[in-house]
Amino acid sequence: MTRTERLFIGGEWVEPDGGHYEVIDPATEDVVGLAPEASRAQVHAAASAARAAFASWSRTTPEERAGVLSRTASILRRDTAALAGLAQAETGATTGTAHGMQVAVAVARFQRYAKGALEPVEEALAPQINEAGPMGKAGVMGAVAVRQPVGVVTCITSYNNPWANPAGKVAPALAMGNTVVVKPAPQDPLSVFRMAAALEEAGAPPGVVNVVSGTDVAVGEAAVDSPDVDMVSFTGSTAVGQRIGEVCGRDLKRQLMELGGKGAAIVLDDADLDAAAAGIGTTFSFYSGQICTAPTRVLVQRSVYDPLLEKLTAYIGYLKVGDPREKGTIVGPVISAAHRDRVESYVELGRKEGARVVAGGERPPYDKGFYVTPTLLADCTNDMRVVKEEIFGPVVVVVPFDADGPEAAEETAIALANDSDYGLIDYVFSGDVARAFRVARRLRAGGVGVNTIGRNMEAPFGGFKKSGVGRDVGSYALHAYSELQSIVWPG
C-alpha cells in the first residue's frame, strides 16, 4: 500500500494545503507514496515554529542535545531494513547503496554529531596588554571566543541521497543548538519525513525539527525568504544556489552552499592505470553517476591514453545495468524520465561536438524504468560543453593532452583542470606521491584525492568557484552552523 505523508510543523503532523503528489519509483515507475504539497503559508508557519522553539532548544545542555541525536541514530539503526527499502524505492539505488551509503551513513552522522554536541565551544585567547589612552586605563584584557548557534536554519537537500545529505545538515545544526526547517527534494521526500519521525521519537521538542515538501518552486522560495530564517544550507545545482544566494543577500542571511561539480581526474604517465580506472569507473556505477564529487572529466597524458581507455571500456563491460533490487545489479536508474532525457541529450551533444563514443551511448532495452547505459566519451577537448558542464549521470569524458617532459605535463594538466567554472573535488593519479601532492596543491578545488576517490569524513568538504560557499563535515560542520562571539573582560 502506498503511504500518504503529512507535513511536520511545530511537532504536529499537518495536512497540506496543496494536497498530495505521487512519488515515483525510478526503477519500476510505480507509485511509492503520496507526498504533501505545502503552501507558502505553511512553510512560513514551519519557520515560525522553529523560531519559537529556538529560545529553549539553544539553551539546552550539550548532553541533552547529544542524547536526542544518539537516540535518533539508534532508532534509525533499529529500522534500517524498512528505511533502506523506502530509500531504494524513492531513488532507484541498489540494495547495497541504500543500506550502506544512505541509511547507514545517516546513522553514522547522527552518532558523530551526538559526540559533536559535546565538543568545546569556547576558545581562550591570549591576554592583551593595553596602554592607557582614550579607551581607558592601562590594563590586561582577557578574551574568549564562543561559538553560538545561528538560529533557524533552512536545510534544502538533494535527491541523490535522501538520508546522508539531510542527516549531514540536520545533525550538526541541532548539535550546535539551532532549530531547522527541512525542505527535501521533491523527487524523494518520504525518507526525510521518516527521519523527522525518528527525531520526534527520540525526544526532539516540538518545533526543533520541521519538514515541508512540494513540487512548486514557491515552497523552496518560502523556506528561504521567511523572515524567521537566519541561515540557508543548500545542496543542489549551481543555478538554484545562485538564486538562493540572491535572496539571502537581501537580508544578509548566512549561507552554506554545496553546489555542482565537474571533477577533473588527472592521470599522469607514471600512474597506476588499474587504480585510476577503478576510481574513475565509479562514476558509471555509484548513484548512477548522480553525484557531484564524481571524477567525470579525465585529463590523461597522451602516452597512457589508449591503455586507460581500454581499461575504462573493460570496466563498463563488467557493470550489470538493471533492477536495483536484483542481485548483481551495479547500475540502477537515474531519478526521473526528465533526467534520463537530459543525460541522453548530453551524450548526443558530445557526438555532435566531435567526441567518440567508446562505450554505451544507447538506452538499455527495458520497458519501464529510467535507465541510462554507462557511457565513455573519448577524444574530447576542454572547450566542449560535455567537458565544461555537469551532466550528473553515468557519463565520463576523456581529454588527452601532450607534454614534452614531466614538468610540462604537470603544468598542462593543472591548466586544463583549473579551466572550469567548478572546483569541488579533483583527483590526481601518479606513481610519484610527491609529484601528485605538488599538483594537488595548485588545483583550484575544495578537495583533492591523491590516488584515491575515497574521503576522510573529518576533512572539510566544500567547493571553490561555482561549486559552493563554506565548508562542512566533521567539526567543520559545527563551525558552519555557528556564529563566533567574542567576550572581553579586564584582567
From TrEMBL:
Residues 13-487 form the Aldehyde dehydrogenase domain. The keyword Oxidoreductase applies. Its EC number is 1.2.1.3. SUPFAM superfamilies: ALDH-like (SSF53720). GO terms for molecular function: aldehyde dehydrogenase (NAD+) activity. InterPro entries: Ald_DH/histidinol_DH, Ald_DH_C, Ald_DH_N, Aldehyde_DH_dom. Keywords: Oxidoreductase. It is an enzyme of class 1 (oxidoreductase). Signal peptide: none annotated. It holds the Pfam family Aldedh. Belongs to the aldehyde dehydrogenase family. This is Aldehyde dehydrogenase. It comes from Streptomyces formicae.
